[in-house]
Amino acid sequence: MTRPLPRGGTLLLALIAGTAIANNYALQPALTAVAADLDVPLSVIGLVPTAALAGSMTGFALLLPLTDHLAPHRLVAAQLTALAAGLALAATAHGPLPLLAAYLLIGAAASVAAQAGNIAGRHAPPGRRGTGVATVAAGMSAGILLSRLVGGALTDAFGWRRMLLVFAGLVLLGALAAAVLLPRQRPPERRGYGATLAALPPLLRDRPGLRGAVITGGLWYFAFNIVWVTLALALAQPPYALEPTAIGLYSLAGLLGFAALPFTGRLADRYAPRTVITGSLLTAAAGAVLLATGLRTPAVTALGLALLDAGCFAAQAANQSRIIALDPARSGSLSSVYLVLYFTTGALGTSVSAPLLDAFGWPGTALTALAALLLAALLTRVLAPGETAHRTAG
């Protein structure tokens, strides 16, 4: 029997997830200053976000399955300590190669954010799994939304090196809290870590529910990335020709997605996940319809982005709750397969965004995203026909 989290444990995991994932993005506003400080081309320092993403993918593949083997207090504290070490290495880097190596470590260790969501779902009280996963997802969303703002402000105040050290200090506080407050119960997984990794690929073949989650999740993340990448490109070109700061203000539309997540969690506990996911995707599709009308009216664009973000964020929280419910004892392995393929599909969306915009313009790009969202909604109904609400925590 899995013991529930202590009082405030889910909130702690949400704070840990937000603080950890923020480190993948906090340096981005300071990349020009970093390039000048290290006296290297900006194109080289521009590889930092790529290194963080590569590290995150590695963490999802190799570290997320550890949630099936190690007690939460030990696993989370150790990974946060590694994250703080990576930040310290980045803060003391005197060349691009050490900085990029540090960001590979930072990205891998920041995958503790996904572990936090998995732990929250596994240790949730009966009938509260969706709420737990959504609460941690809200923390992650807040970390992503606020990371660039906080990172830029701290860089202006103290410089980019001290900014990283401030984040390292926050991460160490999280490690201490995790070591003291998170459950000390070790999961019942009896196979070795190597055997767990070897068993990851067959999961996709043997678990129809996981296949369905991967296909539908990949489709909406593909659509999400297409919209956000091409939005920046479209707004920077005539007839809009907006400055980067003005373009960045559109990211505030994501606050609606953040605000919707706690409500999504309650819905996921009450109704079948496919029902919540379908409704969320139709909300995102309504946003895509508004975006397809063009970008000449900022209020309409902002509303379209808000609905898109709210729908995709809500669908992702419900989908992860659904994956954990497939087999709570192996939820780390199941989530590992899901997230690796989810982000791979998102990267595909990013790579085709500019060619889509060139070929079909903004309306055609938005309609492509709409088609992917509607297909995801349809497949959600087809691939999970008998799904019911999750009333237990496993």
TrEMBL record:
Record localization: Cell membrane
Question: Which residue windows are transmembrane per the record?
Answer: 42-63, 75-94, 100-120, 132-151, 163-182, 213-235, 247-264, 276-293, 299-318, 339-357, 363-384
Q: According to its UniProt record, where is this protein mainly located? A: membrane
Gene3D superfamilies listed in its UniProt record? MFS general substrate transporter like domains
Identify the keywords attached in UniProt to this record, alphabetized: Membrane, Transmembrane, Transmembrane helix
GO MF annotation, one: transmembrane transporter activity
Supply one GO CC term from the record: plasma membrane
Q: Which Pfam families match?
A: MFS_1
Q: Which InterPro entries match?
A: MFS, MFS_dom, MFS_trans_sf
This one is known as Major facilitator superfamily transporter
From which organism does this entry originate?
Streptomyces laurentii
